[in-house]
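Protocol step 4 of 5: obtain the predicted structure for the target chain.
Materials: sequence only (see below). No template structures provided, no constraints applied. The aim of this step is simply to have a reference model before the mutagenesis design in step 5. Sequence pasted as it appears in the construct record:
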Amino acid sequence: MNFSDQHVIVTGGAGSLGSAVVKLLLDDGAKCSVPCFNQDEFESFQLSDHDHVFAKIGVDLTDEDQAQSFFDDAIEANGSLWGSIHIAGGFGMGSIEDTPKSDFMKQINLNLVTCYNSCRAAIQRFKSQRSSGRIVNIAARPALEPRQGAGMTAYTSSKAGVAALTESLAAEVVEDNILVNAIAPSVIDTPQNRKGMPNADFDKWPKPEQLAKQVAYLISPANDITRGSIVTVYGKS
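Step 4 output (structure tokens):
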């Protein structure tokens, strides 16, 4: 795929999946902008000093004004926006009796609100540029199969919201030549997930590099018809 001089924002770009996505895009010629919540996240982002990367510290995407400001700063640094990939989020286990409203709202904010604010900012800028665009969100398997969300109902609810947002938004902006899709991974093979589930069969989990290829296609100019899809990327798990 050719992303030569295309500017793509990648929220959550410093994480395991995000870094794989950013690396693939850069290798194919893209310019990438990555918001980092704090200094620790920035320091963990090994591609922060790449010539075609704009990274900004102190961006809270749950805050609408900060999300808007980041998109403006990214466009000033890397030019008009082609695509926006929304990986920022968080995972939380817990039965409902052990999950107070504050923890439920944390999952809603981390996963759904960050995605909504980023989608909104991206759509506004595509339209102001009078250009087509691409958006890819990150749902999750429990969002499509809620019965798998036992013991993590707050997380499942938030990711189901991401899936619904993706499908409804895709229908809303298709006439503006903006294609919105999402992927729904099962358990991604990351160091954090291996630590949390040490007895699992890691070979069955999809790898960040594999998922990055799916994301890259959906965000690419090569995708000119797929929209409103929640692509299942479960691997063998």
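Step 4 remarks: The domain at 7-233 is CATH 3.40.50.720 (Rossmann fold). The chain has one domain: 7-233.
Proceed to step 5.
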